[in-house]
Amino acid sequence: MQGSRLITQEDIAPLARGCAVLGTGGGGDVRTGAIAVRRAVREHGDVPLITLADLPGDALVVPLSGIGAPTVGHEMIQSAEEPLLIRDEIERIFGRPPSAIMSSEIGGGNGVMPVAWAARLGLPLLDADAMGRAFPEVQMVSMYVAGLPANLVVMADVVGNVVSMRPVDGLWAERIARAVCVAAGSSALMADYVLTAAQARGAVIEGTVSRAIEIGRATRHESDPLGALARTLGAKRLVAGKVTDVDRRTTGGFARGTVTVEGVAEDKGRTLTLEIQNENLVAIEDGRALAMVPDLITVVDAQTATAVQTEGLRYGQRVAVLAWPCDPLWRTPRGLETAGPRAFGYDLDYTPVEEIA
């Protein structure tokens, strides 16, 4: 693997910080994920980070992610056996072992944990993902936008149940996988869109693991971490203020609700409302959307610029809300149909965040 580098213990903390930012509030807890990764790397060794160019065309790539409500995953820790169960099932179905692991979403714990899964399985990690951020639903991946069939979904839960399904498309993959996830207690590990390296070319978002590490390192030794993070992301600060209301509930395998941030200092008198479904979907002020999916909206601590996930938001927190452009794939007609505001039920025509700003 000529182009590979190694993910070492020194990379785990910045990877976790970067994935938390890219998680836009969802994707699972990076703190427990980082602990699991440190242990896996310590026990099994550093993980090669490779590109698609390092793989032969017929190599099997397995996108892995946790599925469910982040509020549940924060308390119900995954079993170390889940990735092994999925690996064994994929090898049984295809008659050959996987060649690499890929994160289905680089955001949140789902961007961090693939390092642990790869280490435990003795496989390299692909420097790519299927979102460039985090999204709540199974079909909201680049492979679906690229038109690849959802040929196989394999799920395993904490007690050892394994479910394999062959949905007719990504929308059915979401419906069936969500039902299985709810039956498993709203938390499970999932491999979806298992594909070859040849199929992955042009159908995944490359370089996102390296990008997450870069974002995580952006605020080191900075006197203005918030400014440094915004510059690295190319982000606009929507508001800086205090969390004054959190309406959050777990239903149907998702964390849903709204969060209200009242501005302070130069933003005094302003009120921003965030609509959430695992992730921050729309930011609204005075009935006007300031940012919306598929662009990224992240809440960070006002002093440290550390991302705050939706399940971690509490009354009185001092925060800033940042927004920046998504990967161009999501701005295509099929990308917007899949993960634009109307895909989540909002009567909004998508407007890029940089145009609103």
TrEMBL record:
Stretches assigned to the S-Me-THD N-terminal domain: 10-165
Residue span, S-Me-THD-like C-terminal domain: 170-353
InterPro entries in alphabetical order: S-Me-THD-like_C (IPR048350), S-Me-THD_C_sf (IPR024071), S-Me-THD_N (IPR010318), S-Me-THD_N_sf (IPR027479)
The protein, known as: DUF917 domain-containing protein
Species per Swiss-Prot/TrEMBL record: Thermocatellispora tengchongensis
Lineage of producing organism: Bacteria, Bacillati, Actinomycetota, Actinomycetes, Streptosporangiales
